[in-house]
């Protein structure tokens, strides 16, 4: 079964020359395109296409290096432009072997439609084709769409790509962190092990017997796990950060009133919840108007 090519399209309110320069100049291109860490044009011979090399850093000193050829560009009668590309790599861990694609720039009245379509042969035989279909192709399509939105915001709002990616990945890190914290604290000390301190705080706070305290702890654990899952799926993370900014002081005061002696414990409710409150404040500020892949069309 042949895979569908990756297709991404976006409207950008800018001038053709600015968009062309941002996408065709290596040191500008590598700033906004998540797929590349660096792009280097090689010396060009007369009457031959432009060759270049690229790198994608993977972390821990690992990187994938590849080659590319700007096969040519074409300007249409309506002012549109097209740039064709041939690319590939011999790196042993790269999921891509070789591919071709193009960028197209279509001028409108007040904007430019910028789109790309590309396809490639997957590495690692049939296993690589299956892995590409279910994982890598959707991932690289998402990365292309996110990069296009970063480019759009750079040209329209003048926010540098580095700043956009810093805010985006900081928000992703905070999302994973809070998802883990809420699920862990709902599951481990409340549902699985039912820590005595959890029971004691509930009994002191609500003045209830063991039986009712048990069910309050269980229900609280279920609520915390649910909230942790919501962190993964709820799109507007600013709402969740705002809720936590209100919630953590309340939880801190309640825990201290229920068990004042906890203030002398290491990682007590005051220090722990204060840290999460500060992270929530930072997350609320950094998550405003984040770049997103959802602004792009993914089908013709």
UniProtKB/TrEMBL annotation:
<keyword id="KW-1133">Transmembrane helix</keyword>
<dbReference type="Pfam" id="PF13781">
    <property type="entry name" value="DoxX_3"/>
</dbReference>
<keyword id="KW-0812">Transmembrane</keyword>
<dbReference type="InterPro" id="IPR025695">
    <property type="entry name" value="DoxX-like"/>
</dbReference>
<keyword id="KW-0472">Membrane</keyword>
<protein>
    <recommendedName>
        <fullName>DoxX-like family protein</fullName>
    </recommendedName>
</protein>
<feature type="transmembrane region" description="Helical">
    <location>
        <begin position="213"/>
        <end position="233"/>
    </location>
</feature>
<feature type="transmembrane region" description="Helical">
    <location>
        <begin position="165"/>
        <end position="193"/>
    </location>
</feature>
<feature type="transmembrane region" description="Helical">
    <location>
        <begin position="270"/>
        <end position="290"/>
    </location>
</feature>
<feature type="transmembrane region" description="Helical">
    <location>
        <begin position="240"/>
        <end position="258"/>
    </location>
</feature>
């Amino acid at each position: 079964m042949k895979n569908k090519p990756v297709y991404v399209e976006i409207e950008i309110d800018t001038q053709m020359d600015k968009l062309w320069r941002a996408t065709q100049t290596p040191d500008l291109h590598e700033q906004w395109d998540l797929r590349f860490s660096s792009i280097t044009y090689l010396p060009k011979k007369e009457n031959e296409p432009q060759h270049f090399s690229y790198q994608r850093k993977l972390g821990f000193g690992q990187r994938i290096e590849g080659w590319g050829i700007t096969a040519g560009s074409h300007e249409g009668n309506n002012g549109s432009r097209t740039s064709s590309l041939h690319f590939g790599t011999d790196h042993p861990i790269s999921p891509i072997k070789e591919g071709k694609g193009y960028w197209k720039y279509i001028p409108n009245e007040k904007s430019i439609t910028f789109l790309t379509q590309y396809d490639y042969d997957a590495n690692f035989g049939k296993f690589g084709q299956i892995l590409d279909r279910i994982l890598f192709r959707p991932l690289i399509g998402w990365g292309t769409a996110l990069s296009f939105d970063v480019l759009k915001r750079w040209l329209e709002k003048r926010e540098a790509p580095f700043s956009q990616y810093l805010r985006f990945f900081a928000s992703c890190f905070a999302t994973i962190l809070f998802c883990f914290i809420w699920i862990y604290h709902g599951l481990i000390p409340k549902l699985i092990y039912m820590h005595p301190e959890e029971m004691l705080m509930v009994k002191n706070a609500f003045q209830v017997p063991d039986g009712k305290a048990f069910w309050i702890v269980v229900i609280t654990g279920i609520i915390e796990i649910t909230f942790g899952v919501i962190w993964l799926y709820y799109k507007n993370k600013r709402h969740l950060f705002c809720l936590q900014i209100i919630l953590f002081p309340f939880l801190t005061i309640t825990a201290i009133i229920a068990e004042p002696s906890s203030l002398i414990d290491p990682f007590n409710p005051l220090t722990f919840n204060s840290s999460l409150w500060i992270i929530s404040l930072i997350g609320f500020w950094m998550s405003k108007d984040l770049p997103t892949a959802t602004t792009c069309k993914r089908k013709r």
